[in-house]
Specification:
The complex is a heterodimer. By secondary structure, chain A is α+β, with helices and mostly antiparallel strands. Chain A contains five helices and five strands, in the order ααββββααβα. Chain A has a single domain, classed as Nonspecific Lipid-transfer Protein, Chain A, CATH 3.30.1050. A five-stranded mixed beta sheet of chain A has the order 3-2-1-4-5. In chain A, helix 1 runs parallel beside helix 3. The two termini of chain A are 25 Å apart. Chain B is an alpha/beta fold. Chain B contains twelve helices and 15 strands. In chain B, helix 1 runs parallel beside helix 2, helix 3 runs parallel beside helix 4 and helix 3 packs across helix 11. The chains are: A alpha+beta, B alpha/beta.
């Protein structure tokens, strides 16, 4: 089990990787969303906010997230560090993503562009 | 009589049953839509297996060929593998051949000239056509990220398409196909985003999958050429009413119908009477020449 700080660190790493990728920054410039990340084994909630091509990590939850990402802390850290494709835990049900299919595809695309 | 059935994830509104004669043989051609129901498509393929000469798989790809590499679409491959006896083809074996020829023909007919701006709504599934436009000196916008993913990020080089295909390779195996491409009733829904209309307006020629072109097409496309396939009467009417100058279909017009490449590839496979694993691109090219198959140009 990862710690709550390790989950936050993985999200920060993901956000930094997005910022450092010039092409991705332009791609997502109009994709303004709130992603709520819930570590089910820790009971913690963090948010990733995309706005104008920037990605940032916020403590706590926003009232109306566009996507809710739920999994255990180990899976979340591995996914956001790019060590694990989200497909595998998503398909076996250990990673749940709630939101529009369009936004799920976009998030998965962003992760693929960063880590594949 | 040869019997060919195209099982499609598209809507049933495009279903047809035809009998045609080719190379001295009577061929029964039919298309059966399943409204995006993959389970129903699979069940139908299992039912047809061993009872028909070839099965076309419509509304979904099994393989994409990009930059000399083969990419597998998971949902498509699982459907194709449902048949154990009858060959199942998705049209990808033909696209490289037919669609390059069509671009060459458009230049020969002076419908397109070097420097014309081309919008390909998606190029991953038609890389051969994309290469042909680039080779002819067209200024291209490839809209894969815009129209399939929803990011306003036009691609302009073949290398970018190759790069994205490689990064997205593992996803193609697992992402449900309907999340990337409209299936069933979603094909009939027009969801033109005003932000993306500029790409249509800036282009001289709009090319690619007919469902994608129509789904995002603004009200007017005055004077523009369209290069696509799978046109039906209502498809052609929509292009004409929107002011398009001409439509070139990449598959031949048979009895007023330009079928999907999967149907045409299934016809060729049935006529060749060889195991699909032994069929080469040259076999297709030779037979296409013998049949005098060419794209069909309609000028409005």
């Amino acid at each position: 089990m990862a710690t709550s700080q390790e989950v936050v660190d993985s999200l920060e790493s993901f956000a930094l990787s997005c910022k450092e990728n010039d092409r991705l920054t332009v791609m997502i410039k109009d994709w303004n969303r709130v992603l709520r990340v819930e570590a089910t084994d820790l009971g913690t909630v963090n948010s990733l906010v995309t706005s104008g091509g920037d990605v940032s990590v916020k403590d706590g939850a926003f009232e109306t997230p566009d996507l809710v990402i739920q999994s255990d802390s180990d899976t979340l850290t591995q996914v956001f560090y790019g060590e694990l494709s989200p497909n595998e835990p998503y398909n076996d049900g250990s990673l749940r993503i709630k939101g529009s299919e369009e936004d799920i595809v976009r998030l998965d695309f962003v992760i693929a562009m960063l880590w594949e | 009589m040869k019997k060919i059935v195209s099982v499609s994830l598209g809507s049933t509104s495009g279903d047809f049953v035809r009998e045609i004669e080719l190379a001295g043989q009577r061929i029964s051609l039919s298309r059966e839509g399943t409204e995006g129901d993959i389970g129903a498509a699979r069940a139908r393929i299992v039912e047809l297996d061993g009872k028909v000469d070839a099965i076309g798989l419509g509304g979904i790809d099994v393989y994409l060929y990009v930059g000399g590499e083969q990419f597998v679409i998971g949902d498509g491959k699982r459907l194709a593998d449902a048949a154990l006896i009858t060959p199942v083809v998705d049209g990808s074996g033909l696209k490289n051949t037919l669609e390059r020829v069509v671009v060459d023909d458009l230049f020969r007919l002076e419908r397109i000239k070097a420097g014309d701006k081309v919008l390909m709504v998606s190029a991953l599934d038609r890389f051969g056509m994309a290469e042909a436009f680039v080779d002819h000196g067209n200024e291209c916008v490839f809209g894969d990220l815009i129209f399939n993913i929803g990011f306003d990020f036009p691609l302009s080089t073949l290398k970018e398409i190759e790069d994205i295909a490689r990064k997205y390779r593992s996803r193609l195996l697992t992402v449900p196909f309907h999340m990337l491409y409209p299936t069933g009733a979603a094909q009939e829904v027009c969801s033109a985003n005003p932000t993306y209309a500029k790409y249509y307006h800036d282009a001289d020629v709009i090319a690619g999958d007919a469902h994608l072109i129509l789904k995002h097409m603004p009200e007017r496309v005055d004077g523009k050429g369209i290069v696509t396939n799978t046109t039906r009467q209502n498809t052609m009417s929509r292009f004409a009413e929107a002011g398009a100058a001409w439509v070139m279909t990449t598959t031949p017009n048979i009895d007023g119908l330009s079928s999907g490449t999967n149907v045409m590839e299934a016809v060729l496979v049935a006529l060749l009477e060889k195991p699909t694993s032994e069929i080469t691109a040259d076999d297709y090219s030779t037979l296409i020449e013998q049949l005098s198959w060419r794209g069909s140009l309609t000028v409005f």
